Amino acid sequence: MADIKTFHLPDLGEGLPDATIVEWHVKEGDYIKLDAPLCSMETAKAVVDVPSPYTGTVKKLHGAPGDIIETGAALADFEPDANAKQRAEAESTGHHHGPKKAEAPAPAPAPAKAATADREDEGTVVGAMVSGNTVHVEQAASIGGVKAVPAVRALAKKLKVDLARVRPSGADGVVTMQDVKDAAANGSAPLLPFPPGRGAGGEGTAGAQRYASPGPSPDAARHPLPEGEGRTAVSLAGKAVRTAPPSVQASGQPEQLKGVRRNMARVMAEAHANVVPTTLVDDADLHAWIGKQDITARLIRSIVAACKAVPALNAWFDGKNLTRTLHPHVDIGIAVDTEDGLFVPALRNADVLDGAGIRAAIKRLRSQVEDRSIPASELSGYTISLSNFGMFAGRYATPVVVPPTVAIVGAGKLCHDVVAVMGGIEVHRRMPISLTFDHRAATGGEAARFLKALLDDLALPN
Hints:
The protein is an alpha+beta fold. Helix content is 21%, strand content 24%.
């Protein structure tokens, strides 16, 4: 009988609990060489190629594109070539390729929490998570009639490829990474600035279906279609249509969270359960600013000044052991919003960077996040966080503190407010600031002094 080897999904970076199959580079029955690309996997941090651990024949693939495989679970079976050189069993490959430590058999299924109790929390995109060891069989999400995993959608956006015009080659009509690359190379599916036929007032059919308004038109309300041919806001009798409650029927299909968004959900729940958050808000007066200034760089400089004035918020807190670590340096986690979810890369040594250095570092981090090339080491270890949500909308917020950090600063939308001054009133440019801190690790007085130091630095002319 042939010697069949099972390859288990290795830890693809700092204790990540699972990864999603993007595409297989082989099929069952193929002959593959040692270290040749076996498959592409999307983790919470990047899309990585997993090399083959053997030279031989692929006997079985444990999953299809879109499936979630947890770290330590079976990924593929091989029949090694007895005449080919194989990697020594003890030779390091940079990843742990073996199965997880076997657990003692139990008379009944153990709770989900117990199944992962043998793994420590590890760094992830926005905090720390726990690993498991099961396989979730999920299909690529269908959005706008196109089936593709998030990594493929991200690549299509980067290469300016219209997924709706790409011919899928994957199982069940799934668009693969190679499909997108081929479309970009031959120019067969360019992303158009307007839907087909509508760039100059036209009314194309495919474009109209993809970009149509989600609500009924006035004509549809006045002339409702027969039942089964469309939805309207009124019935044939002219009365408002009463819909069924969500518990009876809901539109759309459930979508399994994957990759970054899956990790974000876990980490946010963990933070909510373990932090005692308190938020202070105030407005930074920017009236004294001279000329055009880099707002983000000024925010970071002000956070650094506040950290030096009140080190208690530039810290890590261990809630289990009730210990606190104050940091002499300032590494700021910069929240970066993407379609796939939230990334928080670390701006290292912010306390020794000037304005130009800060801007260059932020540009580099954002670029690496967008193309998913950012190293896993850059997504953890920050000492305090910044969420500049005001670049979109909103004045004040209660951003989430992710352990082990103690505080996060939120910057709201710039505004012009009427301010009372000696002898009358003036209109000043102001920036709303929200400071959320873990009240277990810092006092209200420390937080208030931190906020004051931050506001004072922002108020300086330059």
